[in-house]
Amino acid sequence: MIRVLIADDQDMVRAGFKLILGSQPDIEVVADVNNGVDAVRQARELRPDVCLLDIRMPGLDGLEVTRQLAGPQVSDPLKVVVVTTFDLDEYVHAALQGGASGFLLKDAGPSFLIEAIRAAARGDALVSPQITVRLLKHFSGKQRPKAPAPSTELTPRELDVARAAARGLTNSEIGAELYLSLSTVKTHLASVQNKLGVRNRVEIAAWAWRNGIMDDE
To answer: Which runs of consecutive H residues, i.e. helices, occur in 98-133?
Structure first.
């Protein structure tokens, strides 16, 4: 059972999410709160499998909540999916830098919401192509090294897996495309994360775009 905390300042939105997620046999909503302060407190107390956070909330906004629950300084981070009506690059970037496992718009639809929750819970973070990859491409235009540093050299197969992850593919999709078993995909991803010193596939994607690894895509 995937235990979910919902944080959104709109009662109707929380009710809608609870209805959608509660209809799934493998998902349980363990708390819903209307502000960021309660989101942090309840999340730390209940340790849900996934925190579903709005960005604009009273007390603490969703970006700060994400940083406190999943940021680089957190020793035992929680899984966070940020949901918002605001498709703004700076919001997406801040959420991902803060440790979010995924980012989707509220109008993405019930099936996408459910898949984002399941993906985050299994550590197969959902990188939405229409949002995240667009953002990462944008940031790839910033100053960047011309090639990966020697300490981050990957094998050809690891590079294939990193590129696929950066394109928004799930582990299963990567396996199907590269003719690899699911366990092999996970092994490659773990090796990539270790070599790059990153914590999840979102950071792998950011590294790939910023370092020109995707230029041939």
So the answer is: 110-121
DSSP label at residue 184: H
CA dihedral of residues 41, 63, 95, 50 (deg, nearest 10): 20
Q: Give the side-chain half-sphere CA count within 13 A for 78.
A: 28
Whole-number percent of the chain with pLDDT over 70: 82
Helix/strand/coil percentages in the chain, nearest 5 = 55, 10, 35
pTM, full prediction: 0.70
Residue found by looking up tokens 């905390």 in the block? 5
Using CA atoms of 147, 153, 157, 159 in order, give the dihedral in degrees to the nearest 10.
Answer: -30
Give which of 10, 94, 16, 81 is closest to 52, Cα–Cα: 81
* Burial readout 173-199 (b: 16 or more C-beta within 10 A, e: otherwise): ebbeebebeeebbbebbebbbebbebe
Confidence at 15, pLDDT banded by 50, 70, 90 = very high
Specify the length of the chain in residues. 217
Q: What is the mean pLDDT of residues 81-86?
A: 80
Residue 84, pLDDT score:
77
H/E stretch holding 2 reads strand 2-7
